[in-house]
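Quick one: examine this chain and its backbone structure tokens and tell me how the chain folds. Here goes:
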Amino acid sequence: MLKSLALIAGLALFATAAAAQTSQGRPQCNNRDEVLNLLAQKYKEAPVASGVTNNGGLVEVLTDAKGGTWTIIVTTPQGVSCLVAAGEGWRKMEQIALDPEA
């Protein structure tokens, strides 16, 4: 399971580099406070989940109050946040333990 999470985090960081070049060749990155403020103002999104990658990056999922829109960002240890993915129709799922003793 830990290896799967590390793989996902690595893919997220790879996707960050790709996503950063998608808007007319301009990076979709800025300091974290600016990114959070923009997403709050434009889409009414706020962080609902986060995790730390092996190299110290912060992965965050943001959604609006109704789950209509969502955004995933990755923030480097230096405080630069980049858009990884965004979309509509976010829904929270109940976490189910794979280990019966967990």
Q: What stands out?
A: The first strand starts at residue 29 and ends at 31. Strands lie at 29-31, 46-52, 58-63, 69-75, 80-88. The chain has one domain: 2-88. The CA atoms of residues 38 and 44 lie 9 Å apart.
